[in-house]
Amino acid sequence: MTDPTENNDLEDTFESALLRYGMQLDEPLAEPLRRYAELMWKFNEQLNLTRHTTWDLYVGRDLRDCLQLAHLIQPDEAVLDLGSGNGVPGIPLAILRPDVDVSLAESVGKRAKVLDELVTELNLSVPVYASRGEHLLEDFRFTTIVSRAVGSLMKFCKWVEPHWSSFDRLLLVKGPRWVEERAEARHYGVLKEFDLRVLASYPLGIPTAEDEESGAAADRGDEVLDDDDDVSDLEGQGVILQLSRKGRFA
Ligand SMILES: C[S@@+](CC[C@H](N)C(=O)[O-])C[C@H]1O[C@@H](n2cnc3c(N)ncnc32)[C@H](O)[C@@H]1O
Description:
GO terms for molecular function: rRNA (guanine-N7-)-methyltransferase activity. The chain is of the alpha/beta class. It is 36% helix and 18% strand. The protein has a single domain (14-245), classed as Rossmann fold.
């Protein structure tokens, strides 16, 4: 697998990055996704929103995660992106899945204001709440909470623990360190009441021919992970974890 950030010879356009990562998007989706990145980078000059300021990083890290997530949401769901920051994954998800009601929660007021401007400019019908996501759960109900780069598995279990009647499942986009997060959460006993599943796993970086052949970016099915399950086959991969109440998605 190649790390695109180390190769200065690669052409850095949206189209070439999509090609390199083997992603195909129809123009009606590609256009707003391109525009979102351009707007985000414009706001990034005033406020620290993202370090992914090349097309390769945007496509290879942000879009890759959002496309994986988009496959895992059922029609007509109500989704909350908790800790939206720059809008990932909520904004691309709203573009990719217009049938889904997406809301964004961001606790830092200045970032929430920028998110508001982004969704307005992109003509998306996406409410933005300048609030801690878990506080919203006191007044609203969602089917799925999605989140990336906001907190450890253990933190999430604690944040949402009093609010499980306000949503059905959590989908967390995680890098390879999720294995240590799982060990920490197990150690403190916070996973006892929950089922943890790896809904998707995928290679980080540009997929190789072998990745394509072996189906490395594959749905993992919906097996609940047992305490002693060997997950070494997922080493170095990105994953989407689903946390739900025991037996809820049996
Ligand atoms: C590292 S950024 C990640 C942004 C984006 N999700 C991404 O993947 O690039 C984390 C963001 O979550 C926000 N945040 C942290 N805890 C939060 C909470 N409990 N509710 C809402 N926002 C939160 C922070 O203010 C920050 O903007």
